[in-house]
Amino acid sequence: xxxxxxPIPAASDSIDWKQVAEWDEKYVFHVLYTKDEYHSTPVASAxxxxxxxxxxxxxxxxxxxxxxxxxGHRHPRIQQAIRDATEKFGYVWEGxxxxxxxxxxxxxxxxxxxxxxxxxxxxxxxxxxxxxxxVLFAKLYTNRRNIVTRSYDYHGWTNTMxxxxxxxxxxxxxxxxxxxxxIRDVPDSPSPNYHYAPAPQxxxxxxxxxxxxxxxxxxTLACVRATEHLIRTIGPETIAxxxxxxxxxxxxxxxxxxxxxxxxxxxQRLGVLWLxxxxxxxxxxxxxxxxxxVYGVEPDxxxxxxxxxxxxxxxxxxxxxxxxxxxxxxxxxxTMSTFGSxxxxxxxxxxxxxxMVEENILERVRMLGEHLGAGxxxxxxxxxxxxxxxxxxxxxxxxxxxxxxxxxxxxxxxxFSIYAKTPEVPASAVVGKVCFEEGVAVGAFLPNSIRLAxxxxxTKADIDLGLRALDKGLAELDKHCD
Length: 482
Known about the structure:
The mean pLDDT is 96. It is built from 13 helices and 17 strands. Strand 6 (174-175) and strand 7 (183-184) form a beta hairpin. It folds into two domains: 17-42 and 50-73 and 361-478, Aspartate Aminotransferase, domain 1 (Alpha-Beta Complex); 76-358, 3-Layer(aba) Sandwich (Aspartate Aminotransferase, domain 2). 49% of the residues are buried. The chain has 482 residues and is an alpha/beta fold.
């Protein structure tokens, strides 16, 4: 964690937490902070939608960690499934079949409706690996090299996927923690043959339009027209796929309702595959099983992770349309993933998906999402620093502004931040600090935005706790508005 962490107790439950923190700070490589900035924040446990620190403080997880613990920390059904699997397995590779994997595939294809358009799923171990495989499949199928993605998208942390990341500071670069702001990119990053279409960010349009006046006589959005222009300029016959997120997780942008139906019509008309990154939005996050369901469209390839297992163990996957499945069924795919289809992970996946279906979890996500959305709308009305709330289900974004009328952000570089230390204090850090003091953790990565998510098993009372903390955090930020 950053500076001023909670005090660390000397020992509890036979654990010497001061020793834990010392070893952590001395030996572990840490992301996001320099050595001098980093201070360890030991965590004793996590359960439901709360994390308990070593000092006993309970924190409401209003960020859902990295928007990934869909059914909550330590869900009993998932825990028991993992325990039972350890009585049968240590490890077998993906060339061998376990009943867990077959059961998980059946649930996804049949019970969650993916089989309407898809033929097969390959199980993997992380979201980045799943997106890498999606791009690999697209290039193999089309025999084309180019990928079009969007500004403010995020698709993985590896050097290869750096090209897919339209958030400037999210390319595994180094940023200075003192002195003048400096960024040190990986020398060949972003990886070649990636091209960036404008994000569907209506609040602060990157190509200078205002929604809904940006539509042409046919009703087509300006950002969709610009995307088609880019694809035609490069040459559709050279493009392996258009890579998107249904809601931009790192970029914290939810598109207008017309966007994906128009994008899908355009990609099909031009013969370009739609590569749907559902790592963050999949398995109920937006109130539907998958983000594409929200917009009434279907992709050619889909990547999944996070919610597939509620992050109890590493797991992910890539789903192929029936057309692509028919093609790949006639080839030998010369690759393998050591931890893909790991039996313990697949046991957790199957249990996680079963409980989602049995508990009709989508209805709960929609109900909680309506409650959260109403509470955020109230905050937007009352706080001059809150320019916009957007989202659905249990994935929301807050846009923080210095001036509500002009929409001026507190930190000018906004989503082009390189995450170096500067004299400007990120608005999100101001709100996030107050929230944490109130026992609530929020997603405060971008300088002018807050990302909110929670486990699907949260209650309205939990969400109200989070809203009260946000109210106090925004009140502190309001002091800095024009």
